[in-house]
Amino acid sequence: MQNYVVDREYQVIENKISSIARIVAKDDRVIGAVTNEVIDPEVQEYANEVLADTDVEFIVVLDNNLIRYSHPEKAVIGGKFSNIEDASRALDGSEHFSEHIGILGAGRRFFTPIINEAGEQVGIVCVGITNETIAIQNQAAQEKLIYGLAVGLMVGLTGSILLANKIKKTLLGLEPKQIATRLKERKIITDAVVEGIIAISMDKKVLLMNENAKAIFKQANLPEIVSMNGEVSGELYTVLFSECFSTKETVSDHSLVLNHLDIVVNISPIWINQEFSGAVATVRDQSEMKHLLRELSGTEQYIDSLRAQSHNFLNQLHVILGLIELEKYEEVKSYISILNKDYHEEIGYITEKVKSPALAGFLLGKSSEAKEKQVLLTIDKDSYFPNIEVNSLTRHLIVAIGVLLDNAFEAVQTQKRKEISLYLHYDKDEGILTIKVTDTGIGMSSEEKKKIFQRGFSTKGNKRGYGLDAVQTIIRSYNGIIDVESKEQIGSKVLIELDYRLEEGHD
Questions:
Q1: How would residue 248 be classed by pLDDT, with cut points 50, 70 and 90?
Q2: Cβ-based burial of 270 (10 A; exposed 0-12, middle 13-18, buried ≥19)
Q3: How high is the pLDDT of residue 302?
Q4: Residue 424: beta bridge partners?
Q5: I need a labelling partner for 40 at 20 to 30 A (CA). Which of 61, 87, 138, 311 fits?
Q6: Distance, CA of 494 to CA of 404 (rounded, Å)
Q7: How does strand 491-499 pair with strand 432-439?
Q8: What is the DSSP letter of 81?
Q9: Helix axes 357-372, 392-412, angle to 10 degrees
């Protein structure tokens, strides 16, 4: 660095003295004096002015005989130049630098010819600076450089400290190693969460997606979740994020079907410094949950049926026991005969219409439950269901019919007419299974009717509203349809049609 400063300073000095020499050589006073070979005091005066303005050490004007016309030492004016050999090199019209010892001491100097208007060389101008002055200027330049470096170092150090503090503040005071550890921990934690997690930015770039989210989307046959440029696919954006991006509000427990996969999603907007920056969604496959719900609902229907039959049977036993204790044996025989007749008539009617033992037994239980609740439950005379082995269809029918009858039981409780009708029919030729439940209950308003299949919606209180959601899932699994008609204080009718073809051999 020091050598560079010295070399640079020498270059500056050479440019300076060469420029001054050329300017002096073109002055009319200088040209006139050396042409006429007259030592004019104006030349010395002019040279002194230039010296004062430029801080060079000497300006010497010579004619072709190398006689001095100007010099810092006035006494040597009119005498020959001290180094004739060096000066003579410029008599051929060329320019050159040299380092020689003169009257003022050793130094660096530059020679340039003086040319008159006729283009003839009439003299020489020599401008120079002593080595002592050069050393002083080099020292000053180095001091400036060192000062500049010191200031630059201080500014850079201060700036780096401020920048480091700002970055550390932005990174919440964490060191790089800590950040790497946190990132690893975040991945482990997000992958351990049961729900799928996916977050996107304002420009739809995927910020985070855990392994469970990838698995769920793969199960839904959505392999291209993220495009080549890192954006979430248009289909997934529309299904999950479009509503949140539009409203900037949280979407909670939203159930939807993604390529026949039942999922429940929660979407929350991401706010950074009070600005909307994207959204994060948690996704959970609720197929297993709905399957469990259906199983539990079926179990509940069986339990309710058994409970109703048990109550009815105990009541009948109490009557028989009382008659025996009163020794009314004839009345006992008569009562048992009546029970036997009623029981066989009831069982015979249901089993004639419904050949499946599991489904017939379930309907018998519901019939007993209806009597216990003082509700008239009738099986439509045109009902028919063949005898099949207990399979997923019978389990699903028990769930669906049980939910519809339970809802009907509750709907008619406050009505004068407590009547419910069930129509269950299988069309073998068309492969269509029809279920229709009609009641004289309180009915529903148009607004309630729109929401009855929403998971968790119920007019009967909290922790209700899951039955019809399970029914809807069953209908979808058979590519079926459901239609609901209802009028307030008049009643409701629910019609279900399922596409199902039984194997040959079922009666």
A1: confident
A2: middle
A3: 52
A4: 435
A5: 87
A6: 8
A7: antiparallel
A8: P
A9: 10
Query: Which amino acid, residue 420?
Result: I
What angle (nearest 5°) sits at the alpha carbon of residue 70, between those of residues 68 and 75? 80
Name residues whose C-beta falls within 8 Å of residue 497's C-beta, 6 or more positions apart in sequence.
Answer: 432, 433, 434, 435, 480, 481
Quote the CA–CA distance of 247 and 225 in Å, as a whole number: 23
Contact between residue 46 and residue 29 where contact means Cβ atoms under 8 Å apart: yes
Which residues, at least 6 apart from 285, have a Cβ–Cβ distance to it below 8 Å?
216, 219, 261, 262, 263
Q: Identity (one letter) of the amino acid at 276?
A: F
Helices (H), 265-356: 287-325, 329-353
Question: What element of type H or E holds 33?
Answer: helix 28-36
Q: Which pLDDT tens digit goes with each residue over 148-193?
A: 777 888 888 888 888 877 777 766 666 666 666 766 666 666 666 6
- Determine which of 2-11, 53-62, 258-267, 415-424 has the lowest per-residue pLDDT on average: 2-11
- CA distances (Å), 56 to each of 49, 51, 139, 320, in order? 11, 6, 17, 142
Residue 204 near residue 229, CB atoms below 8 Å = no
d(CA 92, CA 103): 25
Highest mean pLDDT among 121-125, 131-135, 392-396, 467-471: 121-125
Alpha-carbon distance of 2 to 9, in angstroms, equals 11
Residues 24 and 46: their CA atoms lie apart, in Å, by: 9
Cα separation, 107 vs 120, in Å, equals 29
For residue 68, the 8-state DSSP code is B
Exposure string over 304-332, b if 16+ CB within 10 A, otherwise e = bbeebbeebeeeeeeeeeebeeeeeeeeb
* Residue 123: HSE in the Cβ half-sphere, 13 Å Cα cutoff: 32
Measured distance CA(286)–CA(237) in Å, rounded: 20
- The answer to whether the beta carbons of residues 97 and 108 sit under 8 Å apart is yes
Burial class (CB in 10 A: 0-12, 13-18, 19+), 67: middle
What does the block give as tokens for 495?
A: 């019609």
CA gap 280, 190 in Å, rounded: 13
Can you give the three-state secondary structure of 412-450, one letter per residue?
HCCCCCCEEEEEEEEECCCCEEEEEEEECCCCCCHHHHH
The model's pTM is 0.41
If you average pLDDT over every residue of the chain, what do you get? 80
Confidence class for position 6, pLDDT limits 50, 70, 90: low
User: Which tokens belong to 494?
Assistant: 């629910």
For 174-239, the DSSP string reads --HHHHHHHHHHHHHHHHHSSSEEEEEETT-BEEEE-HHHHHHHHHTT----B-TTSBBPHHHIII
